[in-house]
Design brief:
Length: 350
């Protein structure tokens, strides 16, 4: 590097290196090759050896842009191509990268910055007690409002967040905010409600997950029995001893647990018995055709009956019509959520 070159921390774990007076673009690659070599030796922190890798993206002036923000954006896209290919490598920016890769890379770039830019918002969908018609709680659902793209579908960014591991900080943020909001409503004089928060498999398997839940409850002042953690079946399929231990700790705290999307994955009736969850959520794919498909009706009827025998609450999600609602009431379903009662809405609307 020359005295004119600049190295700067851009934010988080991102750094920018500005190389000047290059005679040929290959010089940037030669420089980039040296960075992983510098990081081959471990860093010794408190007697622990930590290894660091570097994913590098390169954009060239003026080929890849004249304005600084364009050059940074294109270097960012090249950087995430390096990550996509396994990391610890470098890539030049290429304008002919296919549109799908560009969209995914750009989505990931923006997703990584969305939390610090405060672009996420939590919507709440009421959960209704069919015994008395009252609202007993709500499910918290994350929404991403991008300043340029508008509302980004959870179906687009949640799988990407899980794939990249971003679901952990995002999910922990949702947990904390949902607890704070629920306690705030209670402090304003509203009846106590139970807030349900979706927990991904990656998030659940954090080493300090129980402590993270305890911290969210302590910070917000929310009673443990007003928090329900919704986990999917696939969480329970691996590392069963850890799952049982973690669930027992959560139940000792007083936190509720529900199984989400039951029947859509590798269903195991044995873990319903072993884990003793509070609620079984019947997936909307069964509810959708419950009044027109005899098989779906039989499955839903059986799930509700089984829940009652196991002393587990049954909750049908995605209930959209009066006919579906009447069927569920006739079968003794305990709780529902869906458009027949209310769509998800921001905290102020809720």
């Amino acid at each position: 590097m020359s005295e004119k070159d600049i190295v700067a921390r851009f934010g988080g774990d991102e750094f920018i290196i500005l190389l000047t007076d290059l005679a040929h673009i290959d010089e940037a690659a030669q420089f980039a090759k040296g960075i992983p070599a510098l990081l081959e030796e471990p860093f010794l922190i408190e007697d622990q050896e930590l290894f660091v890798t570097a994913s590098i993206g390169i954009s060239i002036y003026p080929n890849d842009g004249v304005e600084p923000d364009i050059l940074l954006k294109n270097a960012d896209i090249a950087l995430y191509r390096s990550k996509e290919k396994g990391g610890n490598a470098y890539h030049y920016y290429h304008p002919d990268m296919n549109k799908r890769s560009l969209h995914r890379l750009n989505l990931e770039i923006q997703l990584r910055k969305a939390l610090e830019r405060d672009e996420f918002e939590i919507y709440y969908q009421p959960i209704v007690d069919l015994k008395n018609g009252g609202v007993l709680g709500m499910e918290s659902l994350i929404r991403w409002k991008h300043p340029e793209w508008g509302l980004v579908s959870p179906g687009d960014f949640i799988p990407l967040a899980e794939e990249t591991g971003l679901i952990v900080p995002i999910g922990n943020w949702v947990l904390r905010q949902a607890c704070i909001q629920t306690k705030a409503w209670q402090s304003q004089g509203f009846s106590p409600l139970v807030v349900a928060v979706n927990i991904s498999a990656i998030q659940f398997h954090q080493i300090h997950f129980v402590q993270i839940v305890m911290d969210a409850l302590e910070e917000s002042g929310l009673a443990p029995d007003q928090l329900c953690l919704e986990i999917t079946e696939n969480i329970a399929m691996n590392n069963v001893p850890y799952i049982i231990e973690t669930m027992q700790k959560l139940k000792r705290l007083g936190v509720r647990i529900s199984i989400d999307d039951f029947g859509t994955g590798y269903s195991s009736l044995s873990y319903l018995k072993r884990f003793r969850v509070h609620t079984l959520k019947i997936d909307q794919s069964f509810i959708r055709d419950v009044t027109s498909d005899e098989d779906n009706a039989a499955i839903v009827t059986a799930l509700i009956a089984m829940s009652h025998r196991l002393k587990i609450k049954s909750l049908a999600e995605g209930v959209e019509t009066k006919e579906q609602l009447e069927f569920l009431i006739s079968q003794g379903c305990d709780e529902i959520q869906g458009y027949v009662f209310s769509k998800p809405m921001p905290a102020t609307g809720f």
